Each structure stands twice: as structure tokens, then as C-alpha cells.
Amino acid sequence: MNTAGLWMASQLIVSVNYSNDIWFLVIAGLILSVVNALIKPLLVVISLPFIVLSLGLFTVVINGALVWLVSVFYGPFTVGGFTSAVLAGLIVGLVNYVLTILLDRE
Predict the structure, then answer these.
(1) Are 68 and 82 a contacting pair, CB within 8 Å?
(2) Fewest Cβ atoms nearer than 10 Å: which of 18, 49, 81, 105?
(3) Could you report the per-residue pLDDT of 57-101, keeping only the tens digit for each?
(4) pLDDT averaged over the chain?
(5) CA atoms within 13 A on the CB side of 24
(6) What CA–CA distances, in Å, run from 72 to 32, 53, 60?
(7) Residue 42: helix, strand or coil by DSSP?
């Protein structure tokens, strides 16, 4: 699902690129999944006061930081700046939310 979100972000945000090869995007999605599983829980615990004060909106900044981190570790996936990363994190989160709702129907 992260791959679909990153693809949507690259279509909507000019400064998010993946070298026009779908495999680069798939690998970036896998790296984002690993980063979300390993680093995001720690960041959420550390930034819990900010999350509470912002009524949960700070999680968008955390998602953006993780997208930016993927672009730092994986060269073929690039993000133009932190603002673009936060917008990409928001788009990835929304795409994941919609796909989860569509795929988890009983």
C-alpha cells in the first residue's frame, strides 16, 4: 500500500520523483514499510506531547519525516524538501487509509 501512496504522491507533487522506473518505487515502498515498522513507534512515543497538543496532527509531520528519511537512504527516490515530504506523507497516509477501507470490507 505504501507503494501506491508514494506513486500518488509523485503524481501530485512535482518534487517527489522515483526515476520513472516502477521497481524503484516498489523498493522505496518496501523501505518505507520497514521504517514505519521500526522507527515510527519510537518517534510516536518520543513526540507524544506534541501529538496530544496538536490533537494528532503532528503524526503528519512524523509521516513526512519518515518519507524524507527513505529519500535520504534510497537514492532513486527523491523528495525536494521537508515540506514536500510532509505533503507526501499526508498523501501516503490518505491512500493507505482509503485502501485499507476498501480491502477490509467483509
Answers:
(1) yes
(2) 105
(3) 999 999 999 999 999 999 899 999 999 999 999 999 999 999 999
(4) 93
(5) 14
(6) 12, 29, 18
(7) helix
